[in-house]
Write a structure and sequence with these properties.
alpha/beta; 16 helices; globular
Length: about 475
C-alpha cells in the first residue's frame, strides 16, 4: 500500500502548480451524509436526539435521518471521488454506529462491517481513507452522563479510538481524532450545535480541556501500541478564521491577536508550541475575569505536569479548517458569549468583501494565506494539511461562485508556500456532496456534487466545480480556463 509522507514538498517555479506528492482530498461527516439513523443496530446520538425532540431548532425542521443516504449509496460516492481524481477521502465514523451505547461493552458488527466495506472500496479505487473519529455526533448514552463536561469522556474516547485502530489501522493511515473542537464547545456554551445546551462558562473551558486531554491520550496510545506496526499519521482538526485588526491601531491589532489566541491558540498552543499549555493571554484574561467574578479559582482549568508534557508534540501534521475571515476591535457587548467577553473583542466584516449564501461566510482569499503564515510563525512551520475549505450557495449546478472561491483560495495557498515558505502538504474540499449543514439543515449547499433531497433515490449530479477539480487533479495546475 502506498503511504504518503508528511515531509516538506518541493515546489517548482510555476506559481499555479502543485507537486505530485501534494495531497488532494474531499470530505464529509457521518451524520451529515449517512442517514440510516436507526438501522442495523446503530445507537442514538446527540444529533438524533436534538432533531427529533426539538425539530424547530433546525431550519425547515430538517434532520439527518436520511440525509444523502450514503449508508446505502457509499459506492456511488466512491465512484464520484475516483472519477474526480482525489487522493484521499476524509470521512468520519459514527461512534454510535460502532458502539451503540458509546462503550466497548457493546460492539455493533453491522456498523463495523459498513466502515470496513467503505474502506475497502476506497482502497480498491486507489483512494486513501482519511478517518475522523469524532465529528460532533456523540452517543446519547454518553451525553446522558454529561458528555464532554464529564472528565470520564477521555477514557470512553480512548477506548473507542483503541477499537478503531484495532479494527481499521492496518488499512487507514490518516487519522483525525476530533474535528473542530471549538464547535464542540459551542454545543455546550450556547445552543449552536448539539447537544444544544446553554451552560456558558466554565462549561466551555471544561469541554475544551477534556477534548485536549482526549486527543493527547489517543495520540500517545497510537505511539505506544500501534505506530510501529501501522505507520499512520494522526492529528486534530482545528477551525479558525483569520482575524485582522479593523484598523492599524495598536488596540485593534491587539484585539485581533487575542482573537487568534482564543479561537485557534486555545487548542493549538498546548499541542504545537514548544512551551505547551494555554496561550499566556488566554490564561491571563480568563484568570483575571474569574477573579473579578468572585471565583476562588479560574474558569480555565489547569493541566498537570504530565498532561502538559503529553500534549506537547501530540501531532504528525497540523490539521486546519478554514472558510472565512473577520475584522476585530476591542470591546464586547453585554449579550455576547463568554469567550467574546473574556477576550474583549467585537467582530465585523469589511463591506467590500463578497459574500455568499451563508451570512457568516465572506470571501476573503488573502485571509487564508495569512492564517497559514500565522501557523508557520507561531508553531515552527509544521506540515499543514488543510482539512476543510469550501463555499456555499443554493445548490446551482453551474456554480461559478464556488469555482471562483476555490481558485482564489488555492492561489493564496500557493502564495503562502512560495512567499512565506509555509509547509503545506495537502488540501481538502468541503464537501464532495451537498449535505445536512447542522442547524441550517439543507438550506446551504457546499457540495461539488448536487444531491436531490426531494428524490427518494438521492440522485447525485456533478456540478461545474466538480469538473474544475477534475481538471486540477489531472494536471496538478490551477485551471486558467474555468468550466
Amino acid at each position: 500500500m502506498k503511504i504518503f509522507s508528511v515531509d516538506r514538498l518541493s515546489y517548482n517555479f510555476d506559481m499555479s502548480a502543485f507537486p505530485e506528492r501534494f495531497l488532494f482530498a474531499a470530505s464529509t461527516a457521518s451524520y451529515q451524509i449517512e442517514g440510516a439513523w436507526n438501522e442495523d443496530g446503530k445507537g442514538e446520538n446527540i444529533w438524533d436526539r436534538l432533531t427529533h425532540t426539538e425539530p424547530d431548532i433546525v431550519k425547515n425542521r430538517d434532520n439527518g435521518d436520511i440525509a444523502c443516504d450514503s449508508y446505502h449509496l457509499f459506492k456511488e460516492d466512491v465512484k464520484l471521488l475516483k472519477n474526480a481524481g482525489f487522493n484521499l477521502y476524509r470521512f468520519s465514523i459514527s461512534w454510535s454506529r460502532i458502539l451503540p451505547n458509546g462503550e466497548i461493552t457493546l460492539i455493533n458488527p453491522k456498523g463495523v462491517e459498513y466502515y470496513r466495506n467503505l474502506i475497502n472500496e476506497l482502497l480498491e479505487n486507489d483512494i486513501q481513507p482519511f478517518v475522523t473519529m469524532y465529528h460532533w455526533d456523540l452517543p446519547q448514552k454518553l451525553q446522558d452522563l454529561g458528555g464532554w463536561t464529564n472528565p470520564l469522556i477521555v477514557d470512553y474516547m480512548e477506548d473507542y479510538a483503541d477499537l478503531l485502530f484495532e479494527l481499521y489501522g492496518d488499512k487507514v493511515k490518516w487519522w483525525i481524532t476530533i474535528n473542530e473542537p471549538m464547535e464542540v464547545v459551542r454545543g455546550y456554551d450556547c445552543r449552536e450545535y448539539a447537544p444544544a445546551l446553554d451552560l456558558g462558562s466554565p462549561a466551555n473551558y471544561i469541554v475544551a480541556h477534556n477534548i485536549l486531554k482526549a486527543h493527547s491520550r489517543i495520540f500517545r496510545l497510537y505511539d505506544n501500541k500501534y505506530r510501529s506496526k501501522q505507520n499512520g499519521k494522526l492529528s486534530i482538526s482545528l477551525s479558525s478564521r483569520y482575524y485582522k485588526g479593523k484598523t492599524d491601531s495598536k488596540e485593534d491589532l491587539d484585539a485581533a491577536n487575542r482573537a487568534m489566541q482564543f479561537y485557534i491558540g486555545l487548542f493549538a498552543h498546548p499541542i504545537y508550541s514548544k512551551e505547551g499549555d494555554y496561550p499566556d493571554v488566554v490564561r491571563k484574561m480568563v484568570d483575571e475575569s474569574s477573579k473579578k467574578e468572585g471565583r476562588k479559582r479560574s474558569r480555565l482549568p489547569t493541566f498537570t505536569k504530565e498532561e502538559k508534557e503529553s500534549l506537547i508534540g501530540a501531532y504528525d501534521f497540523f490539521g486546519v479548517n478554514h472558510y472565512s475571515s473577520s475584522l476585530c476591535t476591542p470591546g464586547s457587548s453585554l449579550t455576547s458569549r463568554t469567550f467574546q467577553k473574556d477576550m474583549d473583542v467585537t467582530f465585523s466584516f469589511d463591506p467590500e468583501w463578497p459574500g455568499c449564501k451563508a451570512p457568516w461566510l465572506m470571501v476573503v482569499p488573502w485571509g487564508f494565506r495569512e492564517l497559514l503564515k500565522f501557523i508557520k510563525e507561531n508553531y515552527d512551520n509544521p506540515p499543514v494539511f488543510v482539512t476543510e475549505n469550501g463555499y456555499c450557495d443554493s445548490g446551482e449546478i453551474e456554480d461559478k461562485g464556488r469555482i471562483s472561491y476555490y481558485k482564489e483560495y488555492l492561489t493564496e495557498l500557493l502564495n503562502a508556500v512560495h512567499d512565506y515558505k509555509c509547509n503545506v502538504i495537502g488540501y481538502t474540499a468541503w464537501s464532495i456532496l451537498d449535505n445536512f449543514e447542522w442547524l441550517d439543515g439543507y438550506v446551504y449547499k457546499f457540495g461539488l456534487v448536487h444531491v436531490d433531497f426531494e428524490d427518494a433515490n438521492r440522485k447525485r449530479t456533478p456540478k461545474s466545480s466538480y469538473d474544475f477539480f477534475k481538471q486540477l487533479l489531472k494536471n496538478r495546475v490551477l485551471p486558467q480556463t474555468l468550466p
